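Rotation project, supervised by the postdoc (A.L.). Task for the rotation student: set up a whole-complex structure prediction and record inputs and outputs verbatim in this book. Inputs entered:
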Amino acid sequence: MTPERLAYMANQIATFFRSRPEAEAVAGTEDHLLKFWDPRMRAELLAHVAAGGAGLNPIARQAAERLAGCVAPPVRR
Amino acid sequence: MSRVLANDRGTPPRLSEQQVSVLIDGHGITVPAGTSIMRAAVVAGIKIPKLCATETLEPFGSCRLCLVEIDGRKGTPASCTTPVEPGMTVHTQTERLSRLRRGVMELYISDHPLDCLTCSANGDCELQDMAGVVGLREVRYGYEGANHFGAKKDESNPYFTFDPTKCIVCSRCVRACEEVQGTFALTIGERGFGSHVSPGMDEHFFDSECVSCGACVQVCPTATLMEKSVIANGQAQRSVVTTCGYCGVGCSFEAELQGDRVVRMTPYMDGKANHGHSCVKGRFAWGYATHKDRITKPMIRATIEEPWREVSWEEAIGHTAAEFRRIQQKYGRGAVGGITSSRCTNEETFLVQKLIRAAFGNNNVDTCARVCHSPTGYGLKTAFGTSAGTQDFDSVLDADVIVVIGANPTEGHPVFASRLKRRVREGAKLIVADPRRIDLVRMPHIEAAHHLALLPGTNVALINALAHVVVAEDLIARDFVAERCEADDFATWCAFVSRPENAPEHVAGITGVPAAEIRAAARLYATGGNAAIYYGLGVTEHSQGSTMVMGMANLAMATGNLGRSGVGVNPLRGQNNVQGSCDMGSFPHELSGYRHISDEAARALFEAAWDVALEAEPGLRIPNMFDAALDGSFKGIYIQGEDIVQSDPNTHHVEAAMRAMECVVVQDLFLNETAAFAHVFLPGSSFLEKDGTFTNAERRISPVRKAVAPLAGLADWEVTMALSNALGYPMNYKHPSEIMDEIARLTPTFAGVSYAALDRVGSIQWPCNAAAPTGTPVMHIGKFVRGKGRFVVTEYVPTDERTGPRFPLLLTTGRILTQYNVGAQTRRTENNVWHSEDLLEIHPHDAENRGIRDGDRVALMSRVGETTLRAQVTERVQPGVVYTTFHHPITGANVVTTEYSDWATNCPEYKVTAVEVRPTNRWSQWQEESEVLRESTRRVAVAAE
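Outputs recorded:
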């Protein structure tokens, strides 16, 4: 899965939540990634963030960073 | 004519709190006021002779056979048109009545061919029956006078004939076309002796407006309208009540058989989804089940370049299991997955997801609902707490305002459409939101109060504008909202929709719908009485599909249109078991009953029952599987009853993903487009060949009963079970009823469902449990499943798929009445005579600018692909918008659709693709290559002697 595609999808999710207060928007985006994304997709997103996270909007980036901080790095299956 | 009318009570039931007692032939009977004498007599056990009357139609009183005598009244009134009155004493058999009835029959028979022994209705003819009942022994007028024996038989319809020589002009067919189907294709031409049934303006049936629903054939009392299959084979010897395998209406049918041969499918009168009605697909298009293209032997091959090799079931299953285990050992446990089918039964989809979670050991299971109604699941669960529509179909008969958004019921859900049209003819107001001028906008006796002809991709802007009007003009159901909904969310939502960017005057520039029209539609929805929303893939298949579902839920909550009959938010599901496949835990993040896989209590329940540890993380969705295949982490897939290469967007991308996999297993009736990339082919079984259940769009669980044996020897559930056993995870069900019992044990909303219960009551709408032992026709009465209803802010975000100089038109796709989904079934029936190719609808203005004439071959191009098809120049589409269907693989409409998808669910954005159209005289490169591929990958090696 390309980083561009993952970033695009994460941005879409963040865009839906952007109408909420920022903290809520970040939490909503993070929760969506946790509930609906396969761990390998999250792992690749985290790798993309670690590599600079090009193309991620601020909410998506924060959500990804929270993912990196609050869960163990997903293992690629 | 149909045997189902044998127990006919003559006239429709009447509902009334007032009861009326009468005496009929000395028997006292009490019935609701308004009931006809004829029906009251049947209730009392007395049959009155009849020919024009049937309980499926309003009484007409033309045949004069059902005459009765009433004490104290002159004459002999028709019992079908005469309602009971208190204290009435009726005589149904007197000398006078017998004489009159014989006289009437003599007149009928004097102009009727006496070929009963060779007539196709022999043994199933009401005229023949009535001749016997009235004791007809002679025809005093002879047969030499004027008659209709020379009238020509109309055989133009592929499924039934019209033989006017046998017509008694009872008008049942005309009335059925009007009252039941609502098409008004038939009429009685001329008068007196010249009276005759006329399709359109004395056209052939095929050339008329007839939609071949079969309602006329069903009610015909003679052989005038007769199925060609019965003419060819004779009357059935037995029948099996089952459920249609086509759309999400889920009609009940009687499969009528001679031995193992189906001779007719008859809509079942007691079917609660269809009440004895049908469409051209369910009633007539079942011939695919025995089509010569059916594959009935398992096949394998090492590469797709090789020809197929027929093998035993044991070898095919063993090979598949070995391949999946090899891939998992080499690439990891998550390198394989599967897709359940919305065309298969609940039991089969449950079993496939169990196979993947328990035997594959991961959650890489998804279903074809991913590409149609996954946003419905997300949106309605967020707003109301459950992933399903709120009403039963009959609810529409209590609606005062009906809103159809992004759905085309007369094409996609025709039996429900007939009921909707009936309600509109009774006076309900209709609002249609659709880029195209679909039939419901204006057709015989139907005209929408408002057609909101929005641009594709602007649904959310429109729903926000409708909400803006409701809030700005204080049309809110304040008591409902205060009692039933989250107060803070409501306040936030009100502030959001009140913003100027959501005002109709601003949104008009986005949607193309005039502000005054938006305001009028909003006022009608909010103040017109019971208001019901029905929607389809024109809502879900967008980058904001889930947002739009929540937007509609917001509007319904704000106006109090939930929790009773006549209102609600109702998805019209595309395939027969979309609802069921979602219910059964087919999504990678959910177990059956929509419980998240991370829910430890739910997971523990399944782990205990299945004796296996389950992954707690969601697996891959279908589009993610494709992406993962291309990046090398997903290598094997088991696909039951789904043709992803034809139905999923961006065909080039899908084909590349399929080529990247090492083991593709297709289980299907035919070698479909996906099978071109498969390494194992497992023959599937049609809905006639297995037991199980389907769940329709109104959450109705209906039985599917085996009418004939599986052509390949095994039903689909048996194949999945064999694969699981070969993988080392034991499954030992002896009958699908045992699978349903397991579903009921593990799924709270199905707790009261069993085959015994279904046999007893016919069908059940979930939730069915201790709290609702007989099921739940209408949901959210009193309170929402989640407690308080949740308003969600639904900001309009334009799709990234934009028109521009290279691709200035917007393509939107859909379906047509006579074809179904990828057409694998309907293309293998006579339905092809109506729609033998996908056409591109284009507005005359756009066509003229491009030098395109009606019927011209045109190239349809997007940034991802190109295909060639014929143009249909029509004002049905608005300027700037083109439309096509996706039923024919040779067209491959999805070669041009893109990978853009819904933000929440990845449901593809089929409804918005920027394209250009130009005249051409050649097929596209993809079409030429796919034709070669299709030929080369369908070769089957000749078995060695």
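Student's summary: Chain A has one domain: 3-67.
Supervisor addendum: Chain A touches chain B through 23 residues (CB under 8 Å).
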